[in-house]
Amino acid sequence: MILSASFYAQPNLPTSSWQEDLRFLQETVHQDYPFLFKKTTAEAFDDEVEKLYAAIPRLQEHEIIVGLARLVSSFEYGHTSLRLGGESTNFHQLPVNFYHFNDGVYVEGVRKDDLEALGAKVLKVEGVPIGDVLSAIEPVIPAENKQYAKGFGMRYLNYPEVLHAQGLTEELKKDIVFTLEKDGKVFDKSFRAERGLSVPRHYDFIQEEGEWRSSRQQGTAPLYLQELDKHYYFKYLPEEKTVYVRYSQVVPDPSEAIDVFYQRVFDFIEENEVDRLVLDVRLNGGGNNYNNKAVVTGIIRTEKINQIGKFFVIIGRRTFSAAQNLINELDNYTNAIFVGEPSGENINFYGDNRPLTLPNSQLEARLSWAWWQDKPQWENAEWMAPHVAVDMSFAEYRDNQDPVLEKALQFNAENFILNPMDYMTELFQAGKMELLQSETQRLVADPNYRFFDFEGKMNNAGQMLLGQNQLQPALFIFQFCTQLFPESAVSYDNLAAALLVAGDKAKATELSKMALQLDPQGPIGQKAQARLKKIAND
Q: Number of C-alpha atoms within 13 angstroms, CB side, residue 260?
């Protein structure tokens, strides 16, 4: 027991050693990784460094570690992180697995002694509403977007050290109280955190073994959770004349090379009565993107399925890294229809990290160095959005349903609009303004397109027209944006800028004030404020 306690002890470093580690991290970033300052600035990073440096003398060690993690996570690239699990930090973990479904955060798995909590919805943590808790821990997660936080960040909810460092508990403690709802009853449940805890998760879901239990009914699992011991497998669905492929790692499976596997898939498609292919990469967290060639070229060659309405790709919050490269290439070169949730990675991103060991604490930060750009910069976005949006409720998961696959299998290409922006552009160029307005309103309200960035793309189109001195078309688009998105600061700001070009200072002033009111502390508010000063001084 004494040896075990020593093994898991924190380093117990003096203040000066932690401050030296912080300066080492700061100097290394500036010297070797300045290109990471894309989503944050060097000034903002240094400001946070100075705040942490000054605070270190009064912080506990776990608070310093979480502070370092926040700094590294501020770059907002999933490959750039200071991981909090493992022996280096040896944080405590709660013996429970959480999953964020479309109707809330649920207890997805527990040990058999805690079965009363299994399948319960999480309402509060230590009396704090779950939404506020997720917002509080998000800065610690190296999240590229909200999807990454859902797919890879829920484990941060399990660390009492993170909960305390982020101000969710007044003191560091092992017993964390959750307010849960199950079968119409609300109750409190306390979980005790442990060190060295091994949780049998596979792709974020508990696998029943030993004393661990899953909230999913243990009958026939949906296809995406079958044969999880393999990196990839395929199955023919005769009633739908569909080949389903689950591809969970861009890494060769020990039993069969990737190119051999996909050749077998495409041979089967050619030799059998197959109407469509569903490629499921919703669990795929990446690997080596050089392995994507066999997938992409094979689909391009297979004309039988490389058609709109015959090739579907299921994506989701765990679609990341080399899997992001894969879906980028499929979007570029095939007729894929993407179904599911947005991916957990930016379209273009920094990956391929290098370890940086802090000299005193021996904590390891991993800093990305390789820029992956599969699409031109004007097509970059926070994620790859699905053409058809589908996500999953807890009840659907519990009952072994797969609404995402069902949507792909039931897809009807009639009246389907693959690219809403192209469609709206055609109507705009044809001068069909009334139809453009009605169709855009219909598409914005359609839940199938709820992840499509109508606001951003329409405002970008207006800015492009304004830059080409096409003032009236730009004004039309910006005005339309304010109608569609009445809470959008950027839409009011863009319309104000265009009106100022048109010489309408009074209206530009009014709309700039609206933008400032909607985003008082943000960059749009700053732009609006600068414009108001300029108008006042003219």
A: 7
Nearest to 439 by CA among 461, 454, 456, 453: 454
- CA 417/CA 175 separation, integer angstroms: 51
Kindly list the averaged pLDDT for each block of 10 residues, start to end, along the chain of length 538: 37 91 98 96 97 97 97 97 84 96 97 96 98 97 95 94 97 97 97 92 93 94 96 97 97 96 97 97 96 96 94 98 98 96 97 96 96 93 95 97 96 85 92 92 92 92 92 93 94 93 92 93 91 88
Asked if 122 and 200 touch (Cβ cutoff 8 Å), the reply is no
Structure tokens at 223: 């296809």
Distance linking the first and last C-alpha atoms of the chain: 76
Report the amino acid identity of residue 255: S
Which of these, 518, 513, 520, lies nearest to 499 by C-alpha position? 513
Distance, in Å, from the CA atom of 93 to the CA atom of 256, rounded to the nearest integer, reads 36
By the 8 A CB rule, do 367 and 333 touch?
Answer: no
Query: Residue type at 34?
Result: P
Tell me, what DSSP letter sits at residue 323?
Answer: H
* Spatial CA neighbour of 40 closest among 119, 112, 149, 139: 139
**Number of neighbouring beta carbons within 10 Å of residue 381:** 17
| Cα–Cα separations (whole angstroms), residue 358 to 19, 25, 37 | 11, 7, 20
Q: What is the pTM of this model?
A: 0.91
Taking the C-alpha atoms of residue 282 and residue 300, their distance in angstroms, rounded to an integer, is: 21
Pairwise CA distance, residues 169 & 160, whole Å: 8
Tokens 């109280």 correspond to: 177
Q: State the DSSP H helix or E strand holding residue 19, giving kind and residue range, or none if neither.
A: helix 15-32
Residue 268, CA atoms < 13 Å, CB-side half-sphere: 19
How many Å apart are CA 110 and CA 210, to the nearest integer? 11
Six-digit token string for 40: 């944050």
- Other C-beta atoms within 10 Å of 529: how many? 16
